[in-house]
Specification:
Oligomer: single chain
Strand order of the largest sheet: 2-1-4-3
Number of helices: 1
Number of strands: 4
Helix content: under 10%
Radius of gyration: 17 Å
Distance between the termini: 25 Å
Largest sheet: 4 strands, mixed
Strand content: 15-25%
Amino acid sequence: MTDTDMGVPRNPLPRFEEAEELGPQDAEFVRDLVAVLAKHGNLNRFGLCLLHDHFPLRTGEVLVETNDPEARTLHAHVEKADGTQHAKASQWRFVPHAGGEPGAEPAAGSCQEIMLCTTLDLCPGRGHERHHR
């Protein structure tokens, strides 16, 4: 997500409307990625998502996802990072310049969490008691 405060430098992501979706021109990339995932036994663990912004996040904010299994819906909203009950990351962004100069080779662990979620049903208005970790 794009950070609106200057505390954490990030390359901006395109707005959803401007983001280029996966297409035929990406066939070789997808084959290579599938081969790497298969080599490490991660074909049923990781996939792809289109990185984009719908709105900016400020420093100290995270995008969190909750679900309502009965209604079969997902909900995403912003929370303060230091106050969220959502402890499990579900989406990451590769940050090649983490701990180094822009354009440098990716360092081990150079991923940035971009969405957190939980297996608990924490959707507002559901009447469920909030669970604490």
